[in-house]
Model the fold of this input.
Amino acid sequence: MENNINHTFAICAYKESKYLEECIKSIINQKVKSNVIMSTSTPNEYITSLADKYHIKLYINNGKKGIGEDWNFAVSKTDTDYVTIIHQDDVYSESYLEKIMERISNSKREDIVILFTKYQEIKEGKVINLTKNLKIKEMLLFPLKFFKRSKFFKKIALAFGNSICCPSVTLNTKIVGKTPYKTGMKSNIDWDTWLACIQYKGSFEYIPEYLMFHRIHEESETSATIESNKRLEEDYQMFLKFWPKVIAKMLMRQYKNAINTNK
Done:
């Protein structure tokens, strides 16, 4: 699916997710039509059949495997400046790209680093009320409505947890490049990447509207890393990038309760 718009949705498919087709439909039914590709490191008939059904070009990653590597592979296959990595279980409002492109076109500068939106969670097929965790994230992001270029407020937004929802993010590859994601972690790839993005001169464009829906289910990679305690180990590593050990440990005591939302 190809359009002249300077944006691409890159869907990352893995194994045989029963939610993949719903995700694809939310992308192709956007009010503003974009380029759409799909990539996978686990090729199978299910993924191929959906790519064929919706006329989406499918790329196979035969190189290094891993979440970060898969996301970077997908970005590297795009030809546009702006790219949104799509997680196969999530769903997007039909206005998502419309609002993203409006913000890009209305910006008086060309140094937007990333754009991202508010999000809600889906459990058992239904949108749930905002959890305490999501309310805290929105509080942390609020200053970026006004101080989008401030390194201080960008860092504060990330210092108490990963407040920026990865699948809500559109990347400006003119600034972050075609392999933007950090690959040193398994769970906190996105948090580590947003921290690295602070080094770039430019803005974090926060659109405070609920324009995507993140699905919480037991088969997701996030849930799997929580169950294995890998998430907690990496969260502590991330807090140490912002705080001394004593404060990082205090934050972890609170954070252990917050991530139980994903279970």
Remarks:
- The mean pLDDT is 92.
